Amino acid sequence: MRSRPRNKRLYKKALEIFTLSRSVSNYLIHDMALLKDNGEEDPHIYFTGDIIRHSDALAPRIIKAENQTFQDDRIKQANSLIHITNTLYRNCERLEQTGSNGKEFLALLRKELKKFKHLQHSWIMTL
User: Fold this and answer.
1) How does pLDDT run across 54-69, given as a tens digit for each residue?
2) Structure letter (DSSP) for residue 41
3) 53-107 pLDDT tens trace
4) Which of 31, 67, 83, 85 is the most interior residue, by most CB within 10 Å?
5) Which letter does DSSP use for residue 46 in this model?
6) Contacts of 69 (CB under 8 A, 6+ apart)
7) How far apart are alpha carbons 127 and 113 in whole angstroms?
8) Which helix or strand (DSSP H or E) is residue 82 part of?
9) How far is CA 96 from the centre of its chain?
């Protein structure tokens, strides 16, 4: 099984998104960690962990898809990657609705996700 991706641009972008997600999450978590006046936590705080978890799954999923023997299995893994990417994008949108100061960082992350989606589409055509 190969551990190196065939599509290095897509893989590199996945790693960039992971790094950016981690940075954005670390920034946002400080804003959201404070309890509200009624003693409850911000329910959006969990999306900060979700963006890390989903972005961490991008690069391994690329390699997993490329290592599949049969085209149907490659497409199945690629569709799973699309689902993860879309979920990550939606979580960014949800986090933008919070009262955090990190909205501009989330916009940057969404911009990078759009680039990733474009690369992803081209990559799927080569599987």
Assistant:
1) 999 999 999 999 999 9
2) P
3) 999 999 999 999 999 999 999 999 999 999 999 999 999 999 998 878 888 899 9
4) 85
5) H
6) none
7) 20
8) helix 71-96
9) 15
Task: Tell me the torsion sign for CA atoms 64, 70, 75, 77.
Answer: negative
Distance CA 53, CA 9 (A): 21
Q: Residue 5: how many CA atoms within 13 Å on its side-chain side?
A: 20
How far is CA 125 from each of CA 10, 63, 72, 89, 121, rounded to the nearest angstrom?
13, 16, 13, 22, 7
pLDDT surpasses 70 at 1: no
Task: State the first-to-last Cα distance of the chain, in angstroms, to the nearest integer.
Answer: 16
% of the chain with per-residue pLDDT over 70: 98
